[in-house]
Design brief:
The complex is a heterodimer of chains A (81) and B (227). Chain A has 81 residues and is an alpha+beta fold. Chain A is built from two helices and three strands, in the order E-H-E-H-E. The longest helix of chain A has 15 residues, at 53-67. Chain A is elongated, with a radius of gyration of 16 Å. Chain B has helices at residues 17-26, 69-79, 89-96, 153-161, 214-226, and strands at 5-10, 30-35, 46-49, 84-87, 103-105, 113-121, 137-144, 148-150, 165-170, 181-185, 191-194. Chain B is globular, with a radius of gyration of 16 Å. Chain B starts with a strand and ends with a helix. Classes of the chains: A alpha+beta (81), B alpha/beta (227). Chain A: It is found in: Cytoplasm.
Amino acid sequence: MARVIVDVMLKPEILDAQGQAIARALPRLGFSGVSAVRQGKRFEVELEGPADEAALSDVRKMAETLLANTVIEDFTVTVEA
Amino acid sequence: MSAARVGVVTFPGTLDDQDAARAVRHAGGEAVPLWHADRDLKGVDAVFLPGGFSYGDYLRCGAISRFAPLMEELIPAARAGLPVLGTCNGFQILCEAHLLPGALMRNAGLHYICRDQGIRVESTATPWTSDFTEGREIVLPIKHGEGRYVADEATLAALEANGQVVFRYVGGNPNGSLNDIAGVRNEAGNVVGLMPHPEHAVEDLTGAPSTDGRGFFTSILKKLVNA
């Protein structure tokens, strides 16, 4: 059993309207010193077996096919320790 | 002569399939219901992907629908030249399926927008817009929360250079779409997607802002009859 984390973020050049709205809300809540917020998605993928290279390659394929839209998003795959 | 057959796809969460089917019949065509779980296009001559919230818009709008069994038939057929029109959620599905370039994102103002919108027809070189004249301004309803069209710079430049921008917003950009883009087509021209709703604007009786939507349906039916 292993848990693999897929983080999906908008590409840097894509306007993140939601992240901007969050950033604008922070000063109103008393949080200062934040210059920007970007919002993304985190997927926790539970594997039946170990997170070996074959399994990770499958997860990367999942990310590319479904979890992320690579037209607008980048993703990273990490194994949770 | 039998009427041209236009398939109208229903996914779980589709809303506009009945209006789309009615618009097809209004223009003199036969509307053929297509079910997302069937691997069967029923031999239709064209396909309309209507709006709504297919699969609850989970993950991303259109991201799940794009893998529906019906889409496994539709995607190769569209690549082979079958005329396909996607409106609103249908446009999002076509982008997720990579049948159209770019993607649709949350409106820049973050609000869901429901209003009558001016749109300029930029290209009549598609089976869905041939009955319009280039540059004509029409009014159609829009109703969406995720209609901001984005694409990388190179894609955007190619779309403009190839005349693949089919519709542009006029009188104000409602959602922050790049280059005021309301709709695009693929390179071949048979696949068209737009956020506005022609199927809601075919009859005066329904309180639509216009009957400008009729042109989409008369275009495709003429094309199919003359094919």
